[in-house]
Amino acid sequence: MGASPEVCDQVEEGWLSAMATVGRPGAPDAYHCGIDAAMDVIGGKWKVLVLWALEAGPRRFGELRRMLPGVTEKVLTSQLRELEAHGIISREMYEEVPPRVEYALTGRGAALGTALEPLGRWGREHVLGQQGGGEFR
Prior knowledge:
Elements: H1 5-13, H2 34-42, H3 47-54, E1 59-60, H4 61-67, H5 73-85, E2 89-94, E3 100-105, H6 107-126
Antiparallel strand pairs: 1-3, 2-3
């Protein structure tokens, strides 16, 4: 369930006014605003961390799994498939023995990474910066 249209209208009138309203495939008018649509793409515990891991360049499945301790093979596979379906990452299979598959950011994925940089900065300043004492804001 997404954010209410009223909440999105208030947000979009402010600092996110450039975001467009679109519908989910197969569910007309299911998105209320651009934030709702973006969260559908990056929602889930591991997707943003996959983007972070791929920022430095293409990675194989095993590399990604090692970079993301705690993720199961099944969940990582699912998250990668969803990101690929949204056009955020590409999957290239090499005809070798043993078979090799590499995942990389697409142009759309790199743009998403750029859009997430301010969120990462906010987390460092307001969450990680508050660890070790002080009031959480």
